[in-house]
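mind reviewing this stuff:

——
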Amino acid sequence: MAHGAEPGPTPSRDAPAAEPGPTPHLDVPTGTDPFADLDPAARADALAVASQLTNVGRLGVAFSGGVDSAVLLAVALRALGPDAVVALLAVSPSLASDEHELARSVASRLSASLVEFETHETDLPAYRANGADRCYHCKNTLFTTIDDRLAADLALDTVAYGENADDAVAPDRPGSRAATEHRVLRPLAAAGITKARVRALARALDLQVADKPAAPCLASRIPHGQEVTPEKLAQIEASEHALRILGFTDSRVRHHGDMARIEVPVAELARFADDTTREEALRAIRATGFRHVTVDLAGLQSGAFTLSVLRRG
């Protein structure tokens, strides 16, 4: 199924972020601006994204509940109408249950039609091998499943996902190749909407995830070259859940065999000096199966494993 025009050339990594230009034209009935309630900057960005969705027919939005896909879904619902948009939520062992429930909550508050479906990337040898291209195999599984199992049943004409303009020039996004191969639209990136502007638009749209930290899939906590298994993913999920219960705003529990390496924001490292917090974290994480638990003094490091591989290459 063709999902739209071929994506244009990837912007240069050194290119400055696009600034809002003239307000794009969107074909809506006279006197019904779907973004009239937004401030001028947010309205301009919403219209820029909506302008990428003209003439798409019935749209499926690959939806995770994160800020990017939530903004894309919210804009699409306003621009196209709720009957023309379906949120598509992939469920697998790499999706934490907390993230699953949050995605359901976001879709419900937007009154979006939500379709959940299972993907089985953990069955793929190439995914389990956990090379630097692991995200490609995950996204390829996602979009293949949509094409093969959902598109016809849901009468989808087009699929879009929430890549933003910063993602489009990042060096560690192998999943974007799968989107290109499946001709999936990326309206945020095409409109030049950076991560900061996505968050600003999310606040203007009153989305509950506007300030939510990034939440890469659980497999990103396993060093490349070490096998991804459902058992490891469950250990990571339970460990990070325990840290959330203890009040940490964000965390990564890196899986190094029988050792867990905790990353939290630098400003929160001092909390481990409290004996009660330290002992409760140690007990909870050991209960998941780790023998040793350590705290990384470098703090939270997004994309650390993939970036280190790319630098060596």
About this structure: Confidence is low (pLDDT under 50) at residues 4-25, 27-31.
